[in-house]
What we know:
Blueprint: E1 2-3, E2 8-9, E3 12-19, E4 24-31, E5 34-42, E6 49-55, E7 58-72, E8 77-88, E9 91-104, E10 108-113, E11 116-120, H1 126-139, E12 142-143, E13 146-147, H2 148-171
Amino acid sequence: MEWDEVSLNGTLCANASYLQHEYGISMTLTFNKWTIINETVSARNPPPICIGENIVDLEIEVCLHIYDIDIDIETNKFHACFEVLGRIMKLKFSKIKLGCVNTSLYEGVRCIENNIIHQLSNFKSVKAEQKMKAESTINSGAHNGITLDFILLLLSLHSFVLLYKILVTRTI
């Protein structure tokens, strides 16, 4: 590759590979001996999905990370794990593991949360399923589908932002 306007002369190499087991791709881009890009994107372990705001020039995000995704078409099974991440200026400061879910279309739903396993069967009565869901909610520390850890994460983010605003307004 030559570009006379910026005195650029060297070898640019690109490589992209399909990763069958990871359901993803790997890509590298090098210039001479320097690596410019070396990234792997996987559907089995995708990057977190984040929402956030720039509050007083401070980027704060809450992210949902879905990982360890496995789809077995032969046995009709699906597995995925979930965690919530708190990040300030792209730096992770908190991680809350929510648990994993294993599903099968005909065998029921199996939730693994905080090392507690509950089996919900499609063949049980609705009343039994409601009882199991209530027990799962109590045992995992959840309230209306939101874990206590997640609420504490949001409160700590809010407190941090307020503290930052106070410090910034005092120094101005």
